[in-house]
């Protein structure tokens, strides 16, 4: 049942090859002090850094820079960002990069004026911000997380070996995001593929729950079909602008709260993947790919009808003369073949996980309800072992 809900997504998007032209207009809405945040240097290589700093200069902004935001941003780095934002009295945070940079900018934005320790407040106690939040704008260079239009901010605490996401509300979502598919074309193929699987899994996480005939499920199927189609083109020719555009747009809609409407969700592939990530620091999308099939094959009997629908609607499996179990398994086999086409990592051992880590990873996996089966710790260990 769709039930009762309100829907409001405050992020303004500018999409396409000309989208950076709107940055100057957006700057008019914010104060003079801008904190420019980026990652390990890909934007310097691509020339985007020069373009953006020229627009900042042209707009008369005082710019402070914070670079070196790593994939899977750490708590230590968050403390550094809070300090720099405070010292510079930042009035707008401009995140230029992938999901890590956008997530990180949001985490800084809710922490600058917060007296509490952000890890304890947001990632252990899951409290909402009660301080002034610095507005965030994004220029996205990697498609995958949906961070450009959602409130998610995932932070890794290496000391406690926990990788945790807080999904903040409307007030923390980026005020604007610039999505130019061209920027994603300099991504290494490994990252492109990881992003594509991240998108697929975001949709699956919201699709595999309930047995309703829900509008969200139909939207999800369309998004998955578009993604599979575009990914096959981009995999052969990463410079195909149309395919990269469709991937980027699908990523945004896969995780901007729309397809979660009327659904309960447990996000268990992400809970498993994040726990693997906390131990291995592996690329997010690859951690998901490596645990997905053992997880889905495990829960399939509990949500069989939906897995049958997934097989026939998304993967065009012909159901004639087959049992529900056979149809459902053929759907997962089709997904597995597609994952192999994309050369995704299919084993957590290939991401650095060892047998000795399994217990710790299981302890770090948050067990959620809302899906087809609330997993026990033993079942988590079993899925992790099958993912080795
Ligand atoms: O740091 P730079 O030099 O920019 O290099 C990055 C990084 O090494 C590189 N890259 C990005 N754009 C590029 C590029 N290289 C060349 N050309 C470009 N155009 O790619 C590498 C990975 O970037 P990263 O931002 O880490 O990837 P992604 O976008 O997948 O973000 C991953 C983070 O987002 C979190 C993940 O847990 C992880 O920490 N997530 C956030 C979510 C959300 N906000 O809702 C949900 C997701 O499920 C996810 O958990
Ligand atoms: Zn994800």
Summarize the structure in words.
The protein is α/β, with parallel strands linked by helices and 388 residues long. It has two domains: 172 residues, Rossmann fold (3-Layer(aba) Sandwich); 199 residues, Dehydroquinate synthase-like, alpha domain, CATH 1.20.1090. It contains 15 helices and eight strands. The strands form two sheets. It has a six-stranded parallel beta sheet, sandwiched between helices. A two-stranded antiparallel sheet has the order 6-7. Helix 8 packs antiparallel against helix 9. The radius of gyration is 20 Å and the shape is globular. It starts with 11 loop residues before the first strand and ends with a helix. Bound molecules: 5,6-dihydroxy-NADP and zinc ion.
Outline:
The protein is an alpha/beta fold and 388 residues long. It is built from 15 helices and 8 strands.
Question: What is the topological layout?
Answer:
Blueprint: E1 12-15, H1 23-27, E2 33-38, H2 42-46, H3 48-58, E3 62-66, H4 75-87, E4 92-97, H5 99-109, H6 118-124, E5 136-140, E6 152-157, E7 162-167, E8 176-179, H7 189-207, H8 215-236, H9 241-254, H10 268-280, H11 284-299, H12 304-314, H13 324-341, H14 358-364, H15 377-386
Parallel strand pairs: 1-8, 2-3, 2-4, 4-5, 5-8
Antiparallel strand pairs: 6-7
- Beta percentage is 5-15%
Bound molecules: 5,6-dihydroxy-NADP, zinc ion
The averaged pLDDT comes out at 97
**Major beta sheet, specifics?**
6 strands, parallel
Poorly predicted runs of 5 or more residues: none
Rough outline: globular
Assembly context of the chains = single chain
What's the number of domains?
Answer: 2
Give the N-to-C terminal Cα separation. 38 Å
Q: Which class best fits the helix and strand makeup?
A: alpha/beta
CATH class of the largest domain: Mainly Alpha
**Lateral strand order in the biggest sheet:** 1-8-5-4-2-3
């Amino acid at each position: 049942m769709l039930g009762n809900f309100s829907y409001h997504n405050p992020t303004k998007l500018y999409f396409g090859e000309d989208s950076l032209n709107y940055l100057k207009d957006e700057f008019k809405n914010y104060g003079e002090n801008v904190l420019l945040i980026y990652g390990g240097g890909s934007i310097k290589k691509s020339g985007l850094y020069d373009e953006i700093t020229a627009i900042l200069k042209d707009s008369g902004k005082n710019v402070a820079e914070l670079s070196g935001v790593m994939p899977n941003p750490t708590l230590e780095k968050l403390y550094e960002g809070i300090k720099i934002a405070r010292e510079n009295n930042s009035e707008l945070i401009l995140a230029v990069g992938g999901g890590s940079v956008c997530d990180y900018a949001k985490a800084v934005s809710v922490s600058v004026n917060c007296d509490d320790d952000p890890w304890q407040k947001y990632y252990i106690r899951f409290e909402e911000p009660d301080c002034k939040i610095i507005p965030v704008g994004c220029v996205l260079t990697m498609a995958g997380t949906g961070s450009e239009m959602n409130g998610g901010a995932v932070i890794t605490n290496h000391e406690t070996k926990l990788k945790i996401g807080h999904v903040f509300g409307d007030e923390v979502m980026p005020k604007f995001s610039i999505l130019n598919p061209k920027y994603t074309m300099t991504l290494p193929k490994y990252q492109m593929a990881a992003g594509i699987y991240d998108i697929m899994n975001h949709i699956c996480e919201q699709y595999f729950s309930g047995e309703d005939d829900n509008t969200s499920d139909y939207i999800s199927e369309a998004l998955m079909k578009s993604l599979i189609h575009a990914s096959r083109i981009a995999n052969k020719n990463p410079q195909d602008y149309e395919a990269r555009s469709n991937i980027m747009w699908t990523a945004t809609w896969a995780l901007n709260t729309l397809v979660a409407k009327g659904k309960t969700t447990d996000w268990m592939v992400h809970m498993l993947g994040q726990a693997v990530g906390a131990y291995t620091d592996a690329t997010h999308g690859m951690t998901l790919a490596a645990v997905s099939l053992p997880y889905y094959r495990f829960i399939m009997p509990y949500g069989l009808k939906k897995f049958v629908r997934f097989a026939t609607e998304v993967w065009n499996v012909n159901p004639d003369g087959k049992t529900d179990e056979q149809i459902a398994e053929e759907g997962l086999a089709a997904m597995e073949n597609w994952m192999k086409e994309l050369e995704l990592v299919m084993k957590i051992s290939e991401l650095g996980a060892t047998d000795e880590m399994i217990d710790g990873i299981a302890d770090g996996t948050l067990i959620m309800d809302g899906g087809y089966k609330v997993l026990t710790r033993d079942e988590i260990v079993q899925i992790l072992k099958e993912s080795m």
